[in-house]
Automatic annotation (TrEMBL):
Highest taxon of source: Eukaryota
Name by which UniProt lists this protein: Uncharacterized protein
Lineage per the UniProt record: Eukaryota, Viridiplantae, Streptophyta, Embryophyta, Tracheophyta
Amino acid sequence: MASSTLICDTEQWKDLKAHVDDIKKTHLRELMSDTQRCNSMMVEFDGILLDYSRQCATLETMDKLFKLAEAAGLKGKINRMFNGERINSTENRCVLHVALRAPRDAVINCDGKNTVPDVWQVLDKIREFSERVRSGSWVGATGKPLKDVVAIGIGGSFLGPLFVHTALQTDPEASEFARGRQLRFLANVDPIDVARNITGLNPETTLVVVVSKTFTTAETMLNARTIREWISSALGPEAVAKHMVAVSTNLTLVEQFGIDPNNAFAFWDWVGGRYSVCSAVGVLPLSLQYGFSVVEKYRLSYFLVSFGKTDAVDTRFLQGASSIDKHFYSAPFDKNIPVLLGLLSIWNVSFLGHPARVSMESNGKGVSIDGVPLPYESGEIDFGEPGTNGQHSFYQLIHQGRVVPCDFIGVVKSQQPVYLKGEVVSNHDELMSNFFAQPDALAYGKTPQQLQHENVPHHLIPHKTFPGNRPSLSLLLPSLSAYNIGQLLAMYEHRIAVEGFIWGINSFDQWGVELGKSLASQVRKQLHASRKKGEPVEGFNFSTTTMMKRYLEGSADVPQDPPTLLPHM
C-alpha cells in the first residue's frame, strides 16, 4: 500500500464495510450460543485471559480484520517502531518507550546510537537519589527527613504515574514500603488544586518534583512557582535547592528556577508524553514513595526480552521481561492481545459507528500521517470507572441508551481480601459477580417476552426492556501486582499503536493541544493588561469579550499589584 493511500481505499476495508450489514442482522444472543466461536475468541498469555466473544463479530469478521491489518502493513510498522525508525514523522522522532524498560545490556538503537545506556544512567541516578531521600541521608533545609512528595506535571506527566500510584497504594508489598510517606500529584492550574495538595503538609518535610521536559509548560510552571513560594515563605529562598528537583532536559531554566541542575533527571524526545510513565516522569516520584526496587518490578514487567538479557534481576523479573512487549512484537495476530484489542476498536469505531469506549486512551486525528483528510472516523471517546461505581453513573446509558463498547478488567486475587462471617460471598466475590454479569447483561439484554413471562405490568415493559447486542470484552488478570500493572499499561499502549498503524495516523504526536494553549496566551496578556493598566478588552469575538468583561467586573476587587497570597484550607 503506497504511503499516500488511505486504508479505506483498499479492498480489505471495502470488504469489511460490506460485511457490516451481515453483522447487524445477527444478535449477540445468537452469536453467544456458538460455543466454538466463543472458545476461539478467548486468548491467554502469561496469566492474562482475554475474552472478546461478546463483540459484535464472527470468526469471518476477525479473518477480514486480519486481512485489513496485512493490507495496512501492520507487522512492518510494529517492526519499524521497535527498530528505532523515525515513525513519528510530524516531529521527526523515534518512538522508543519500550527502551525505557529494557535491561542494562540490551541494544535498542535510535539513529544508530544505543539508547539503553542513557536510560540506565538516569535509572541509576534515580535509584541513588530515592534511596538517599528514603533513608534520611538527604534531608530538608532544617535537617528533617523528607517524607512527603508533591509531583507537579500535567497530561502524561501526571495521568500515568497517578494510575500506577493508585494501583500500588493497596498492594501489600508496596504499601509496606510506603508506610509513613505521602505522594500527591498537582496537575490542574486551579488554585483549589494547589490548596488541596499542600493541605496537611509541612514544607520542612516536603520534596517537590517538577516534571516538564522544556521547563516552559505554562500550567506546570505556574504551579511550580506557587509551590516554590510556599517553600520559600516558610523556609527561605535557599531552601528551594533542598526541597525541589526536576525531571527536565532544560538545565539552564532548571538552574534559573533555583533547582540544582545536578538534581535534574533527564528523558528524551523519543518518549512521547503519554508514553512516559516508565521514564523519570513516573519512576522518580514512584521510587520516592515506594522504593526503586518495587518500581523496577513494575518497569521490567513489560520489557522485550528478545533485545537482550540481564543478570541484574531475579528469575521473576526475567519471566516478566518476556511479557507484553515481547508478546506484541512476536505473537501471531490471532493470538496477540494488543493487536486484537486494536483491531476490535477499529471495527467498532470505523465500521459499526460506535464513537465511544469505556476504557482508557484516545487516538483522535482528522488527517492521515501524510496530511490527507480522513473520510472515516478514528479515535474514541474514552471513559470508565472502578468496580461497581459505574453502575451508578453511566450503566443506564450503556444498557438502554447509546451503544458503547466496553472493556471489563477484573483480577483473580484481591490486593486486600475481606471476609465477613455469615456473608454469602466475600467482598471480592461480590465485586467479581458484577464483573461476570455485566458483559452478559449487555450482550443478551432482556426481551419483552421475558418480561411478560415474569408478569411485569404492561405499561412498564418498554421501560424494563434491554435490547442487548452491546459489545464488550473482558480481561482477567491474576492479580494487581506491580508486574500485572506493567502488563496492563503496555497492553493499552500497544493497542493505541495498532489502531494508529491501521488508520494510517500518527499516534505519537499531539498537535491538537496546541491551539487552545496559544489562544490562552492571548487571553493571559489581555487579563494582565486589563488588571494592571485598566485597558479595555479588545481583539476577541463578541461572546468571548462579553464573558471576559463579566469576569473582570466580578473580580474587580483583585488589587492591581497584589502581595503574595498562598492558598489555605
